[in-house]
């Protein structure tokens, strides 16, 4: 997870917080939380230098499928994971288009968005 967090931080850039949230239970697995500021009109952070496309501030959670994580521990897992890290930028682009999230403007349509059950395919 730290390697994914570092890569996502590098991709999304300044003004976005990326945090690893620890495992709480089978219903609340380890997550990567990607967030930024407040929504337009919510106070001090509204002029963050970005023209917001959506009404809500960036607040995205990412989780990966347990079986996918276990596969990384098997033969070829490290090579597969490195390919995945190289593909994260393209994956983020695809995910945001599917869920009304705009990383560039640090905004999204819903207050919270979950990209869950992700795999490690490049």
UniProtKB/TrEMBL annotation:
What Pfam families does this protein map onto?
Answer: DUF5594
Which InterPro entries does the protein's record reference?
DUF5594 (IPR040953)
Stretches assigned to the DUF5594 domain: 1-121
Q: What is this protein called?
A: DUF5594 domain-containing protein
């Amino acid at each position: 997870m730290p390697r994914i967090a570092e890569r996502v931080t590098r991709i999304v850039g300044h003004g976005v917080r990326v945090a690893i949230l620890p495992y709480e239970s089978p219903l609340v697995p380890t997550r990567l939380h990607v967030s930024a500021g407040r929504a337009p009109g919510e106070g001090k952070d509204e002029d963050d230098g970005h023209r917001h496309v959506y009404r809500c501030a960036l607040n995205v959670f990412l989780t990966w499928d347990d079986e996918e994580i276990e596969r990384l521990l098997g033969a070829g897992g490290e090579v597969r994971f490195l390919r995945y890290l190289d593909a994260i930028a393209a994956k983020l682009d695809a995910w945001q288009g599917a869920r009304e999230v705009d990383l560039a403007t640090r905004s999204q349509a819903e207050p919270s968005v979950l990209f869950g059950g992700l795999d490690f395919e490049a």
